[in-house]
């Protein structure tokens, strides 16, 4: 049995399933955990892959460490979303951290991750962690706290779902207000594949309307099958300007020298964006606001009920299609 993910109107990624582990419809979304042949255990929300045992370090180290290592001494952090506990785990690596406020509206996702993943149980029970199950936008607007770093780690915003309001100018203005003067913000920003990167461009333009230094970056995410986008924003700091040796020195100093993906050399690479994508970020997209007229439209995969698997979606038995698939050695001229 295979599970598929639509990444465009004419493109799908298929994952071979070895075991069905858990599935539940929470108040907000469909939560699935399956064991795949290539990626190990994979967590899906509403059919979208969120993290895998094989490569979760790529996404989470890329989201967290450029901002954290740029700040001189991060003590207080806010995380919007982050129910898997992975962003929290990366933040808690820093020996300077005193408090992390993490706000994920879906308690059932957090509880499930704590049950199935040791890192989540450890991170959410760390004495520096304060966990809230509320609307992240409302929480941040009402808190009197100020933060050194703020992160967004949410599902892909599907039009009017719970994540979409967190990517609009009004929320980014709140983020700016709740950061300390030397604070820095970072968020994932959807696909960086040039075919699907209008959303990336819109998030960059929206942040540029609020912050002085806005730096897009990206890396290849194997689970997603494409380059994935991130953006850092600050009024004083630019992570792309740090020299590799300085990043490596700070990682050691702050107790984070044992990472799998991120270091000074990696920082140089992720902030190096190709010419075509730079043009798209400059020319495409628009500022996102709460106004209906300026809300962004993105590709939203449809969820397909799977016959025989009532608790899982987007399942297909490819064995039944073997007789219509021909493999041939006939030369094929691509161009």
Keywords:
seven-stranded mixed β-sheet; Spermidine Synthase, Chain: A, domain 2; alpha/beta; 28% helix; six-stranded antiparallel β-sheet; 2 domains; 335 residues; Rossmann fold; globular
Task: Outline the structure in words.
The chain is α/β, with parallel strands linked by helices. It folds into 2 domains: 67 residues, Spermidine synthase, tetramerisation domain (Spermidine Synthase, Chain: A, domain 2), CATH 2.30.140; 239 residues, Rossmann fold. Helices cover 28% and strands 30% of the residues. A hairpin with a 2-residue loop joins strand 13 and strand 14. It is globular, with a radius of gyration of 20 Å. The mean pLDDT is 90.
Describe, in short, the structure shown.
28% of the residues lie in helices and 30% in strands. It has helices at residues 56-70, 86-92, 107-116, 118-124, 136-142, 169-178, 198-208, 244-253, 264-270, 275-283; strands spanning 2-8, 11-25, 30-36, 40-45, 48-52, 76-81, 99-103, 129-132, 147-153, 179-191, 213-221, 226-234, 305-306, 309-313, 315-316.
Q: Which percent range fits the helix content?
A: 25-40%
Helices, by number, come to: 10
Shape: globular
Oligomeric state, counting identical vs distinct chains: single chain
State the CATH class of the largest domain.
Alpha Beta
Largest beta-sheet characterization: 7 strands, mixed
CATH topology of the largest domain: Rossmann fold
Q: Give me the CATH architecture of the largest domain, please.
A: 3-Layer(aba) Sandwich
């Amino acid at each position: 049995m295979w599970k598929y993910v639509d990444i465009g109107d004419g493109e799908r990624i298929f994952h071979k399933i070895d075991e069905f582990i858990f599935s539940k419809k929470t108040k907000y979304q469909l939560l699935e955990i399956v064991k795949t042949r290539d990626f190990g255990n994979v967590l899906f929300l509403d059919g979208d892959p969120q993290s895998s045992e094989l490569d979760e370090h790529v996404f989470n180290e890329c989201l967290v460490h450029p901002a954290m290592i740029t700040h001189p001494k991060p003590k207080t952090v806010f995380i919007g979303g982050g129910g898997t506990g992975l962003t929290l785990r990366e933040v808690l690596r820093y020996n300077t951290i005193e408090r992390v406020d993490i706000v994920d509206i879906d308690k059932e996702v957090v509880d499930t991750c704590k049950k199935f993943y040791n890192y989540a149980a450890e991170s959410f029970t760390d004495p520096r962690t304060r966990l809230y199950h509320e609307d992240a936008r409302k929480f941040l607007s009402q808190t009197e706290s100020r933060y050194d770093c703020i992160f967004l780690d949410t599902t892909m915003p599907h039009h009017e779902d719970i994540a979409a309001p967190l990517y609009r100018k009004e929320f980014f203005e709140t983020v700016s207000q709740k950061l300390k003067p030397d604070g820095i913000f970072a968020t994932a920003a959807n696909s960086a594949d040039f075919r699907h990167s209008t959303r990336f461009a819109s998030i960059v333009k929206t942040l540029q309307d609020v912050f002085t230094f806005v730096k897009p970056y990206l890396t290849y995410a194997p689970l997603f099958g494409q380059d994935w986008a991130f953006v850092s924003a600050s009024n004083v700091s630019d992570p792309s300007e740090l020299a590799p040796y300085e990043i490596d020195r700070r990682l050691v100093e702050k107790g984070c020298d044992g990472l799998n993906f991120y270091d000074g050399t990696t920082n140089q690479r992720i902030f190096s964006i190709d010419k075509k994508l730079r043009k798209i970020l400059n020319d495409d997209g628009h500022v996102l606001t709460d106004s209906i007229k300026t809300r962004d439209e993105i590709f939203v995969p449809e969820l397909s009920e799977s016959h025989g698997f009532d608790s899982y979606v987007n399942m297909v038995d490819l064995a039944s299609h073997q007789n219509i698939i021909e493999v041939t050695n006939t030369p094929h001229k691509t161009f």
